[in-house]
Design a protein that fits this description.
mainly alpha, 250 residues, 2 domains, single chain, 11 helices, two-stranded antiparallel sheet, elongated, binds zinc ion
Length: 250
């Protein structure tokens, strides 16, 4: 999970949310409750929240990834428009821009009607997941502190340690470990170099390796939060970064 930034409300929502909600509320009054509205009628009344103009704007804000698990549609099934506060319990929020999140089918299916108003989970548009989560090997964990319970709840509700997410993390981890070993050798070669020209060449190789691996932390890449966390805590990567910075400064 990474921090996401919400853009301003799409025009189609600005123009229609009041009318859409009025129609839905009229049906709720007529049938007595949201759950009592016949399925077909309910679907006709609520479908507007996934209007193309809303969906596209929303998906752009998450770099076309699931807001919770950071998978791309190829892994988690289609990305859907999800209600942070479930519309079945909070129908007033059915067309509320701040309540809509892009979410993969797996996370959506896992979250179901979990009531975030009563038992909150992390909303990556409002909280920075970096402050809440860390990783141990291929598992995501909630950091100790004030937000530990909300972090733990998010992992449980969205299934963030399920096999479907640990498998790709393990594949990425193999690459990250390989990068770490390569970098360690490159740093040793740099210190062994006996001429300035050789040192410059080896620094260039180190820099290229860093630039290549940092691509994995681009927010557009799947599971970029996992990769960022690994690199931030990777001693050899940080050593290599310092080496490059010192060389550029001298
Ligand atoms: Zn997901």
């Amino acid at each position: 999970m990474i921090k996401l930034n919400r853009t301003s409300k799409p025009k189609v929502l600005q123009d229609n949310e009041y009318t859409w909600l009025c129609h839905l509320k009229t049906a709720i009054d007529a049938y007595g409750s949201y759950s009592a509205i016949p399925k077909d009628e309910k679907s006709k009344l609520t479908k507007f929240y996934r209007h193309d103009g809303i969906k596209e704007e929303l998906f752009n804000t998450s770099h076309e990834k699931c807001a919770f698990c950071e998978c791309k549609p190829a892994e988690g099934g289609n990305i859907e428009v999800e209600h942070f506060k479930p519309k079945s319990i909070h129908p007033d929020f059915t067309f509320e821009w701040e309540n809509l999140l892009p979410c993969c089918r797996k996370c959506n299916g896992s979250k179901l009607d979990h009531d975030t108003a009563i038992d909150p989970i992390v909303n990556p548009y409002e909280m920075d997941p970096k402050e809440i989560f860390e990783y141990s090997d291929i598992r995501i964990l909630a950091k100790s502190g004030a937000n530990k319970s909300i972090g733990d709840k998010s992992i449980e509700v969205c299934g963030l340690n399920s096999v479907r997410l640990m498998k790709p993390r393990s594949e990425i981890l193999v690459n990250l470990y390989f990068f770490q070993d390569t970098l360690q050798e490159a740093i040793a070669d740099y210190y062994d170099a006996d001429t300035d020209a050789k040192k410059r060449n080896r620094l260039r190789s180190i820099n290229e390796a860093i630039e290549k691996i940092e691509q994995l932390t681009d927010p557009r890449e799947k599971y970029s939060g996992f990769c960022s966390n690994f690199l931030e805590n990777c001693e050899i990567y940080n050593k290599a970064k310092t080496l490059i910075q010192d060389a550029m400064a001298s």
